Amino acid sequence: MISKKRKFLIVGAGWAGKTFAESLVNDAPKGFCFEIIGFLDDKKDEIDNLNFPVLNTSNKIVETAIEYGASEIIIAITHERKDHVLEQVVACYENGLVVHQMPDIYSEIFKKVPINHIDHHWVVPALKPPKRGLNEIFISAIDYTVCLLLIIFVYFPLFPFIALGIKLSSPGPIYFLQKRVGMYGKRFTIIKFRTMMDKARSNGASWTTENDSRITFLGKFMRKFRIDELPQLINVFKGEMALIGPRPEALDLVSKYKREIPFYEYRYLVKPGITGWAQVVYKNTCSIEGALIKLQYDLYWIKNRSICLCMKIILKTVRVSVTGFGSV
C-alpha cells in the first residue's frame, strides 16, 4: 500500500525549521512519503543558503498553503510568537489544515525528542510522571509477567553454569553491585553478573570502551547476549526498576550528564529499565554526544508510553538477546 504524500509548509526558516527540513531529507524513515513545499519567514528577503524557497511571510500561512497545496503546517519559530501567527493557526484549523509544533512532528516521525529545539514551555506539559491508569496497569502487568517467566525459565536454569563460569574465568564475586540513580533521583544498588576483572571500577565509574581490557573472556560473551543483565530481574521485583525504561546510570556519570546535557533530569520521571526504547534503537555509547542522543529516545518513551511500544521494545530486545547483534 502506497502511503499518502505529506506536504509540509514550514513557518520559520531559522535553526529549528532548517533542522526539521534537513532531518527529513537526510534521515526520513524508509517508506515515509513527503514533500517540503517551502518556508515562511518574516525575514524573507534576508535569508539564503536554504535548500527550499522562502515563499512568503508568516502572516500569510493560509493563503500560501492553499496556493501551493500544502496539507500540514509546521510551526518552527524559535523566538517569541507574534499574535498574527496565533491568528493564522486558528485560520488553518478553519480551513482544514493540520498544524504541528516542530518538536511534536519531529518526535512523531523520528521517534525521539529534539532536545536542542525544545524549552521548558514545551517540556513541562509534554513530560510528566505516568498516571496510574489502565495503560500503566497493563504495562506493569507485562513487566512482572515477563520478569517472572524469565526468572523461572532462564535465570534459575542458567545460574549454576554462569556462576561456575565466572568463578573459573577470574577471581572475585559472582555478582557486580553498584549504586545507580533511579526514579525521582532515588539511589539503589543494581545487580549484574560480573563481566570485568574484580575491582575494575575501584577508581569510580567510567565508560566501557570497545575491546576494554577489564572485561573477561566470559564477560564478553555475556555482554554480547545480554546475559549479564539477568540479575536485574531482582531489581524489578524489588520495585527499583522496570522491565522497560531508561538505563540506570552510575552516580559519577549522572553528575556529568546533568551538567552537560539539557533536560537530563526528566528521564527520572519513570523507573529505569533493563531494556528500553533508547537501548533497542541506538548503539551502546561512551560519550556525552551519544548520551544526548539516547536521552532523546528516552524522553520519547516517557512521552509516548503505551502497550504497543512496550511490546515492540520487548520483541526487539529478544532479537538482540538471541542473535547477539544490535543495540541494548
Q: Could you explain how this protein is built, in words?
A:
The chain is an alpha/beta fold. It has two domains: 6-110, NAD(P)-binding Rossmann-like Domain (Rossmann fold, 3-Layer(aba) Sandwich), CATH 3.40.50; 134-323, no CATH class. Helix content is 45%, strand content 13%. The chain is built from twelve helices and nine strands. It has helices at residues 15-27, 61-68, 83-94, 102-110, 120-126, 134-169, 217-224, 232-237, 251-260, 277-281, 288-303, 307-323; strands at residues 6-11, 34-40, 54-56, 72-75, 98-101, 175-181, 187-193, 242-244, 273-275. The strands form three sheets. A five-stranded parallel sheet has the order 3-2-1-4-5, with helices on both faces. It starts with 5 loop residues before the first strand and ends in a 5-residue tail after the last helix. The relative contact order is 0.10. The model has no long low-confidence stretch (mean pLDDT 89).
Give the helix/strand layout.
Layout: E1 6-11, H1 15-27, E2 34-40, E3 54-56, H2 61-68, E4 72-75, H3 83-94, E5 98-101, H4 102-110, H5 120-126, H6 134-169, E6 175-181, E7 187-193, H7 217-224, H8 232-237, E8 242-244, H9 251-260, E9 273-275, H10 277-281, H11 288-303, H12 307-323
